Amino acid sequence: MHSSIQIILLFTLLSRANLSNCMNLTIINNCHETIWPGITATNTTLPGGGFVLKPGETAIYAAPPGWGGRIWGRTGCNFDKNGNGTCQTGSCGTTLTCTSPGTPPASIAEFTLGDTAFYDVSLVDGFNLPLTVTPIEGKGECSIAGCDTDLRVNCPPELTFRLDGKTVACRSACNVFDSDEFCCKGMYSNPVTCVPTNYSKIFKTACPVAYSYAYDDPTSIITCSTTDFVVSFCSPRNQTQQCSYHDNKLVCNGSTRSKSTPYIWLFFMFFLPIVIQIRIIS
């Protein structure tokens, strides 16, 4: 019997870039539906990214040193052959490649990479998919961030985002009511006056290691050094082992065993992301 693994190598390539210094962000779709991850940089002029991941597919994004950015999943998308189209949730406009943040509601993985990496999963803009971030062989606290619970199941009716009779996302209270209190703006724009609300507490109870409101820093943002990351959509709660590609090896958290895996070297183009699908037959 033949089995196959779909791997997408997605590199943001820079002039004179040294890929060996990059941190690999391995993006996995464990959902039962196709998703369209979006990527935007928040602290550089690097272009955004966007691609399709079918159930069971994996992508590797090589982030250059000092990169900061967001990764999220878009759902219910329909793009034509030119990459133009729309999505039900997480849309970044009408193109497959994102150059701006996703439209709420969306679960978001956030990174600031360096000698010490800062990372979190934010539900401040609402929830559309379970999303976790797992460090691989890092040094420091290096715990798993995110939300592996599907908040759409028990979303309060007033926050429920429905399309075609189906709940496709759970909106944030800020997104629904646009009040200073829920959005932490105006007189609530500081950590003293902006406190958890009944709505953010629902998110926090279900997902204690994800941002539930703007100043939810102490229990949500995590630091780790010398690491790659796995960004996983819809990972089962009991799936503790995650793997990434580092120094030409397949490395898994919680394991000292590693398997040599050759990189596929890509043709370089200045400031262009490249996506190649590879089918491995065993």
From TrEMBL:
Q: List the disulfide bonds.
A: 31-234, 77-87, 92-98, 142-224, 147-207, 155-170, 174-183, 184-194
Name the residues that span the membrane: 263-281
Instruction: Write the signal peptide boundaries.
Output: 1-22
Record-linked InterPro entries: Osmotin/thaumatin-like_sf (IPR037176), Thaumatin (IPR001938)
Enumerate the CDD domains for this protein: TLP-PA
Pfam families reported for this sequence: Thaumatin
Q: Does the keyword Isomerase apply?
A: no
- Which UniProt key words apply to this protein? Disulfide bond, Membrane, Signal, Transmembrane, Transmembrane helix
Can you tell me which family this protein belongs to? Belongs to the thaumatin family.
Quote the protein name from its UniProt record.
Thaumatin-like protein
